[in-house]
Task: structure prediction
Amino acid sequence: MIYLILFWEFFQIGSLAVGGGLAAIPFLFSLADRYPWYTHEMLVNMIAVSEIAPGPIGIKMSTYAGFKAAGVFGSLAATLGLIAPGVIMMLLIVRILTTVRENKYVQNIFYGLRPAVTALIAAAALEIANFTIFNTGISGQFLISIPPLILLALLIIGQKFIKRFSPLMMICVAGIAGIIFRL
Result:
């Protein structure tokens, strides 16, 4: 029974998290509230490990969560549940889009999805920032305070002056900010 629950829960996440693995993070936090498979702290650690390991983040996180819940077969059920909606949608979209590719309504639908994806990723970033920087825990309400806003302003200003903002520079700035915010 747990395999069906894992498959169904991750099928729903795969269906609703348009935009990739980072867009799935808010859904994973709510999943941690409903089931004892993993905690919020384990999820934050899972995200950190998933970011440094190669491959799609959503697949790695669903595999890990499924493994914590029900072992190897749980990881298989969760992973299949996460990728099944994408496979089904891609088969349907390819078939449909070849005929309605130039339709302005279809183009407007895809244009309208962009802000939703951005909002999901921003929500995930704020939740993780609250948990990692301020140790507030995840409560569904965001703690927006001065330090993250200062960091965001510095990154935006820095990007204006530095034309190529390298990922290494971003990691160094984030590391320094982490040290400063923990003092």
User: Anything to note?
Assistant: Confidence is low (pLDDT under 50) at residues 138-144.
